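We emphasize that the prediction below concerns an isolated chain of 410 residues; any contacts that depend on oligomerization or on bound cofactors are therefore not represented. The input was used exactly as deposited, without trimming of termini.
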Amino acid sequence: MTRPFLPVVGGRERMLRQHLEYLVHRFDAVKVICFKGRSESVEPERYRREFPTVEFEFTDYPGLLDVLRGIPALGVSAPLQCLAFFGRQKSRWVAARVHEFGPDVVVVDMLRLWSYARQLVMTRVLDIDDLLSLRYQRQLSSGASDVLGTFKERLPAVAGWAATVFATRLLAMESKRLARLEQDVTDSAASVLFVSGLEAQRHRASSGAMNLYSAPPMSADVNDARRPPVNRGDGSLRLAFLGNLKAPQNLQALRYVVQTLVPVLDDAGIDYELDVIGSIDPKVAEELSHPSVTFHGFVDDLSDALRDTDLHLAPILSGSGVKTKIVDAFAFGVPTLTTSLGLEGLEVEGRDVALVFDTPEHFLALVQAVSADPEVLQNVASNASAYVAEQHSREVVFARYAEAYDRAGI
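Result of the prediction step, given as a token string:
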């Protein structure tokens, strides 16, 4: 695994946790080798409590000297993130741990760790997440230039500085390198798993590979959750924004909300409160401060945080894959306002599950319309809840994983 996944603070951590749940369900024994930053703290006991039958081993990402020694093995034309996280000595250590365990299959989290699996002569399944080459292209076209995202804290400060100074060039170069690797890796993996079925189809069309599958995020557990009330127009609108705000695409969306959509609401005289839920740098929270905006940080209980929410704002401007925060809002019955890109990867064609806007003017028109006719929100929320119950249940998601592992012959 590329990172610790407890507590679950973002979409990738969520996907790692659910994939591990499936592995425990399918296999007799599971070992996890989890990479982390050198200064990153982990509570091993928490992992053992949640997964008592799994053997966990946490290891630091390789140091600079080990990374430099590993470059000849990958070649200087490899994606920068693969070069940055691959060490020659660390690779030998990983290989020794894997052979000692003697697995029937090795599952690899994302392309940046594929370098460690190339040397292993055994069945390999790649959980690719999404097409990073596409994500970086969209970041460039939308003006978001954060290269490292949530991994910035796991690398030396000099790497973060270089990535910031040369962000645009690095994103363009990395997108091209990753596109080549995305094409090549399908030949050596038994199965490749995407979050988005649409991206699996796209990659199948471009590569001709038939070993591509998808498993979407499972919907949140809402057994004890009360659907939030819909505002009846007799008080302020309660809005919510969800997401790990150390991820560049989420931070980009929040800036758009606070700097573009919030002034539209203010100018129209709409009474509202906006709750921002998710891990955030205190400096960013200070920069985006507004009298009607409250930053709650990471919360353990999303159902409680959304209990009084009228509208979930999810203006997706870049990124790829499936947006887990939108799936969660659907599951909790919270009506969602999103951009066209927000529904990408969800099998919702022809279903009225969200309110979609792509301009500030359209956003304001939708807010005014649903404030005047709250039944629209109730219908949308009901449709969205029904959709996730059909397409994002545990049974459906596990069946998707099963297809990939059956294909690998395990």
